[in-house]
Design brief:
By secondary structure, this protein is α+β, with helices and mostly antiparallel strands. The protein is built from 11 helices and 12 strands. The strands form 4 sheets. It has a 5-stranded antiparallel β-sheet, sandwiched between helices. A 3-stranded antiparallel β-sheet has the order 5-9-8.
């Protein structure tokens, strides 16, 4: 800071008999200048003059000088204190660097989860909504942030959620790329229904099934006498019971290029579908992010992905999902969830829409790197499922 040595000199050197400086110096006045005021129009305006002002008119040997020095520092300290208070009050923890409140292992701190709009976005608290009588009403994002907690979750989670009307997202590590597991089937369904929309295939058109069928979840592998099935029924099996053989038949009917184009059109930035499911000879990856999954469901719910009749069909299929141990598990009576789960060893996902008579919020939770015994050795249950269920309930309460 300019002039800092001079100010330290003035503050701590004792005054002599007639001015600043040692009292045993030469006789005569020890003042450097004779004015009793600071000249604010000089080349160094402000309460902190530079060292070149010594001996210039405007800096006086005056009893007021020490008070001026004190006032200058007091103003600076007061401003710093005010800035600190505003920083704490207005800028919430976790909202400065992409909303990722994570420890050095990449896991969530206990307590309120952080939120943000993008990876490098700087967000301030939501202004909420204004009621008809002029009162401020908390919005979905603000209410949800107040409830989010990931206490004791033995893994890494990506989270994305927002109200479909308010469109203010709550994101936690939402752009971390993970194995998509069966959540990718929502995108595949939309790509297939777009092929129906374009006239490339009929919804009730029969699709031939291969003699050898992959394992994992589903029933078609156990029905070798069934050699063909309609696209409508394949989509239902793919979503409702997560049939992998049905999924591969849909992929073959639609094509990877159409799925890739659909993903890009829906705004996905990190989602890739490059291989058939459960195929040991396939190359490539099927991966996604919580944010991409939420974008897909948001587009579907708002009617931006499909025309009205096909949107209704897709939502109806999602509503019949039979795996209900995650997002829908703790929802109250009257609530609905249109969701698709995904699971592998050490991984539990669920993505869905939540509301009552219609979808009102989108929620995507992708959890991997699970270390508990149940998650490492099986495909159902575990603490991540319980945590996802709690997040679904919190999202529904935030809609109130």
């Amino acid at each position: 800071m300019p002039g800092l040595p001079l100010w330290l000199f003035l503050l701590f050197w004792p005054p002599g008999r007639d001015g600043w400086g040692p009292g045993s110096a030469e006789p005569g006045p020890r003042c450097w200048c004779r004015s009793s005021q600071i000249d604010w129009s000089g080349p160094f305006p402000g309460p902190f003059p530079g060292p070149d002002m010594i001996g210039q008119p405007g800096l006086a040997c005056s009893r007021n000088l020490r008070m001026m020095v004190f006032n200058g520092w007091a103003i600076m300290v007061a401003n710093l204190a005010l800035f600190a208070v505003l920083f704490i009050v207005l800028i919430r923890p976790g909202q400065l660097m992409g909303g990722d409140t994570l420890d050095r292992h990449g896991r969530f701190f206990s307590g309120t989860a952080a939120s943000s709009v993008g990876t490098a976005a700087r967000r301030f608290p939501s202004p909420g909504r204004i009621s008809p009588d002029g009162r401020r009403v908390m919005g979905f994002a603000e209410r949800l942030r107040a409830e989010l907690a990931f206490d004791g979750l033995p893994g890494r989670a990506g989270f994305a959620a927002w109200d479909l009307d308010e469109q203010e997202p709550v994101l936690v590590d939402a752009e971390r790329v993970v194995h998509a597991a069966s959540t990718i089937k929502v995108l595949i369904m939309i790509a297939a229904l777009r092929a129906v929309q374009d006239g490339r295939i009929e919804l009730d058109e029969y699709v031939e099934l291969p003699a050898e069928r992959v394992g994992g979840f589903g029933i078609l592998r156990e029905l070798p006498s069934v050699t063909r099935i309609s696209l409508r029924d394949l989509i239902t099996l793919m979503i409702v019971i997560s049939d992998n053989a049905a999924t591969n038949a849909v992929i073959d009917a639609v094509g990877f290029e159409a799925i890739r184009d659909c993903s890009a059109d829906l705004g996905c930035t990190a989602t890739r579908v490059e291989r058939r499911l459960m195929d040991p000879n396939a190359h490539g990856r099927n991966e996604t992010t919580a944010l991409d999954q939420a974008r897909v469901l948001d587009a579907l719910a708002r009617g931006a992905a499909l025309p009205p009749e096909l949107t209704e069909h897709a939502l109806e299929v999602l509503s019949k999902q039979q795996v209900r141990d995650r997002l829908p598990a703790l929802l109250p009576d009257g609530a609905q969830c249109w969701n698709k789960t995904g699971e592998l060893l050490g991984l539990r996902h669920d993505v869905g829409l939540i509301g009552a008579d219609r979808p009102r919020a989108v929620v995507a939770v992708l959890v991997d790197e699970l270390t508990d015994e149940r998650s490492r050795t099986g495909y159902r249950g575990g603490p991540a499922c319980d945590a996802i269920a709690a997040l679904g309930a919190a999202a529904y309460r935030a809609l109130a």
